[in-house]
Structures are given as C-alpha cells and as structure tokens.
Design brief:
two-stranded antiparallel ribbon; 182 residues; 2 helices
Length: 182
C-alpha cells in the first residue's frame, strides 16, 4: 500500500513557494506486535477504564479531559474550550537558511520523514528549492541568534536531501574479435 501523507502544506524559500506533502520514511507495518494473553486460559487480556477510587468501570461518554492542578484537584476542560485555544496555522514551512547535515545535532532528528511536491504544480518550484540547498556551503559566518517560536508552536530541523543526478559516462566501443580468413 502506498504511504499516506502525514501533513500537507507549503514549503517557502524567499519568494518561491510550492505545495508539499510530508510522508514517513519508515513504516510500522514491518514491526512485530504482540498480544497479551492469560497463560492459563489462552484468552486475550483486555484493559478496562475504571474509576481509581471506586474500582467501577466507567463508560466512554462519562470520561472527560481535565488538567491536574494539585494532588487531588482537577479542572475539567471541554472540547469547545480546547478548540478556542488552538492556534491558527499557515501550514507553511519557511526555510530561513541551509546548513550542512553534520551541523545538525542528532537528537533533533528523531523520526525520519521526506517531503515531496504535492501535485504537478509544485515540481518546478520544489526543484528550485532543493537545488538551492544543494549548492556548496559558503564559508561559515557567526551563527545567528535563534528566533523564539510563537507560543505553542514548535520549531524543528529537517534535512532535505534531493536525489543525485545519475552520472552518465559515454561507453567506449568495444573491439570486436576479427575473423580470420581461410
């Protein structure tokens, strides 16, 4: 089965913008998963949602989200309240600068993904951005002071590597064995 995009948005470098899709570079389908079973009966183990104090099972519709303030003090948060605090997104990855891969601390590369143009329109713009990052690195200058992300937003580093062009070498004509005349 073809991978499904985890995210769709835009990739922007200066005035060049193209639609992109983000795909996982690895798959969970090859991972082995196990079930827990009762050794004596061979039946599968199920987990129930139970009240911590009473020990009684709680129906799904009676379970709500809450924020812990103190040891036994919680503030209930409704779905509407969560929707009101979500940040608007431009769904755009803005490229500030290109850096060499070895300059990225490995702890920032947690899970591998790859970007590709989304639709036929973005191929040319994506190629321009990809080639912009493939140029030889300029002499390093003092590092810029990192910008702070807006409240609730995350910044991440992502290596973007393009495919290398296949090197074609002209084949030399091979010498044919000559026939000997009789």
């Amino acid at each position: 089965m073809a991978p499904r995009a985890n995210w769709k948005g835009f990739l922007r470098l200066s005035l060049v913008t193209c639609p992109v899709a983000l795909y996982p570079a690895t798959s969970d389908s090859e991972k082995v998963s196990f079930n827990q079973i009762n050794r004596n009966t061979g039946h599968r183990i199920k987990y129930s949602r139970v009240d911590a104090e009473t020990g009684e099972e709680v129906a799904s519709e009676d379970i709500v989200k809450a924020f812990k303030i103190d040891t036994d003090t919680y503030v209930e948060v409704s779905k509407e309240e969560l929707e009101n605090v979500t940040l608007e997104s431009t769904r755009t990855i803005e490229i500030d600068e290109f850096v060499a891969r070895d300059e990225i601390d490995p702890r920032y590369i947690i899970r591998p993904y790859y970007l590709r143009p989304d639709g036929k329109v973005g191929h040319d713009a994506f190629a321009v951005i990809r080639e912009g990052g493939a140029e030889p690195a300029k002499p390093s200058k003092p590092a810029k002071k990192p910008r702070k992300a807006a409240s609730g937003q995350k910044e991440m580093l992502m290596p973007i590597a393009g495919k290398k062009a296949k090197e074609t070498t002209a084949k030399k004509p091979t010498a044919r064995p000559q026939r000997k005349s009789a």
